Amino acid sequence: MAEREESRGKKLQKELGLPRKSAWERLEPGTREKVFAFAEGYKGFLSRAKTEREAIRAALEAARGRGFISLNDIPSGRGLDPGSRFFLTWRDKVMLLGIAGTAPLEEGIRLVGAHVDAPRLDLKPMPLYEKDGLAMFKTHYYGGIKKYQWTALPLALHGVIMLRDGRRVEVVIGEDAGDPIFSVSDLLPHLAKEQMKKNMEEALSGDDLNLVVGSLPFEGEEELKDKIRLAILQLLNQRYGLVEEDFITAELELVPAGPARDLGLDRSLVGAYGQDDRVCAYTALQAVLELENPGHTALVLLVDKEEIGSTGNTGAHSRFLEYALTELAARMGSASIVNVGRIMANSQAISADVTAGVDPTYENYFDMYNASFLGYGVVLNKYSGSRGKYDANDASAEFMGRLRDIFNHNRVIWQSGELGKVDAGGGGTIAKFLAYFGLDVADCGPALLSMHAPLEIASKVDIYMAYRAYGAFLAS
Q1: Which residues contact 447 (CB under 8 A, 6 or more apart)?
Q2: CATH 2.30.250.10 domain locations along the chain
Q3: Which CATH architecture is the domain 120-256 placed in?
């Protein structure tokens, strides 16, 4: 029997509609293996880049391994040939790396910007105290967290200490199998009747996030007070040369202990801390490392402090990008400030950041017509912000159309999305700070479940498509 001819309505649906379908089902033959292989490198990066300093160090090592050289080692006025690979780091927390294009710099750049900081607990400047038979550290949380998620959890201590003798000491405790871990204790349910009557925000205050760090007293002198506290100071002094004053000149961060892992029986997902936004940092990094001879100068910008408003001299709100482009222009024959402004005005950027994926348990917080789904491809967001697009960048129709064409031409599987229902909340990215300089910019990155939690969930196929999307854009 001959097959029935497809109806006119079904033909129109295919021609006019935008069907939603899993990216796994749309992959070209042989691509699934590439997706899983790419995820292995990504998990390794997440496992060793638990802080912003560690992420920049890992990016720097990768760049040097691919032949990138410091912009500071290239004299002003010498010129950069097309295809030259360079980087510029800033205070161990920011990095710009790129490849010189064949087009003049005044015609603009292609930039992908991501942030490498993540929500965590920081030690306070004077953290150590003793109470009720335990030594404790006081913390101050960094970024937007649900405080209850950080209790009864294995934590590792990462950071740097500037000792009073001038030495800089790096600390990582809790990642190796033989290391001790730390934890914020929680009230047992048997005594939590009053606590559990409170709402989630009130049940635990920021000053309740105190870390258990020891219980052995200093031996031999009965009359001493705070002997457990003294014993902890002695241990830290023996291992790192630390005295109590050195806590004030330290950056010590508590992060979930342990490596990134496959999640799910089919291993299609990645479960790990810090995927907001190191998933975009890693995929953008890999895209520029593998790029060859772009038409426009292609740059990847990795910044700090996004989770607290992009403030400070290492955030996207700083003048680092302006400074870096001035340095770059001086080496490409475009040294005047006027030309740097022209470069920015003619440039295009992707703010590479994650968005919220639909959680089947909390579906009612999403506009299902405009939501993003795990496993459906990288997400292109026209705007972020909250309640009336406040504090957002709102990309133009022309630039959204350009990105769509780039992605479709390069067979990038993508979807559109937004963070959630209009009045449910919201959040910002570095897009508005890039737009401040005059760049066309839109947000683009994978969707996550459990964003800002100690363990976030991403789809391997979305991670791979982010890498493909950023590569295609940088080459455009």
Answers
A1: 354, 355, 356, 357, 358, 372, 373, 374, 376, 379, 417, 458, 459, 462
A2: 120-256
A3: Roll (2.30)
Which residues are within 8 A (CB) of 446 and not within 5 positions of it... i.e. 6 or more apart?
Answer: 279, 280, 354, 355, 378, 379, 458, 459, 462, 463, 465, 466
Q: Where in the chain is the domain with CATH 3.40.630.10?
A: 22-118+273-474
Q: Is residue 294 a contact partner of residue 101, using CB atoms and an 8 Å limit?
A: yes
Give the β-pairing of 378-381 and 355-356: unpaired
CB distance 465 to 284 below 8 Å = no
- Dist. CA 136–CA 25, nearest whole Å: 51
Residues 31-58 pLDDT 10s: 999 999 999 999 999 999 999 999 999 9
Q: What is the CATH number of domain 22-118+273-474?
A: 3.40.630.10
Helix, strand, coil shares of the chain, percent, nearest 5, are: 35, 25, 40
Interacting residues of 465 by C-beta distance below 8 A, sequence separation 6+: 23, 377, 378, 412, 413, 414, 446
C-alpha separations of 344 from 111, 132, 398 in Å: 10, 58, 17
CB 138 within 8 A of CB 205: no
pLDDT in tens, 378-401: 999 999 877 888 888 899 999 999
Per-residue model confidence as pLDDT tens digits over 445-466: 999 999 999 999 999 999 999 9
- The answer to whether 339 and 330 are in contact (CB under 8 A) is no
Amino acid of residue 70 = S
Q: What is the DSSP letter of 394?
A: B
Nearest-angstrom CA–CA distance, 406 and 400: 10
**Residue 195 in contact with residue 181, Cβ under 8 Å?**
no
Question: What residues contact residue 411 under an 8 Å CB cut-off, 6+ apart?
Answer: 28, 468
> Sign (positive/negative) of CA torsion 37, 40, 46, 49?
negative
pTM: 0.94
From CA 200, how far away is CA 403, in angstroms rounded? 40
| pLDDT one-digit tens code per residue, 158-216 | 999 999 999 999 999 999 999 999 999 999 999 999 999 999 888 899 999 999 999 99
